[in-house]
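Task card 7
Instruction: Convert sequence to structure tokens.
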Amino acid sequence: MSKQAATRRKTMYSGTHGNMASEVFKVVLTGDTAGTEIEMGVIPAGIEVTGLVANHDNLGAGTNVDIGYRYIDPDNGTDEVAYWGNHSTAAAGVKASVAKPVMFEDDVILVATLKGGAGTGELIIMPTGIVRGVK
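Output:
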């Protein structure tokens, strides 16, 4: 017995330069206070983000960051400022998000919100995804 997935008739895009997208967004925190929202970079419309990794120094005792997104035009969607989860940053480390893929039909800003205390050190966020284009 066999079963066809709903995506069975889709063909992987294989354009001239491919359709994978990735970026490395970096910030150095210098005693930034809890509650500071850091605009890391723009994820353009037409990208489906399939993964996200946070790499960070020890930012300070009790610190953590929420990683998510805000729409550039607030009328285009609902912000999810912790979509990719809350990551402890009290010790240096690398953490991958377990969030489901998300497709953006409009430009968004990748944001990291510092929680739990003042943060000092480097925070690197690396999203990966597929360029699908806007509908």
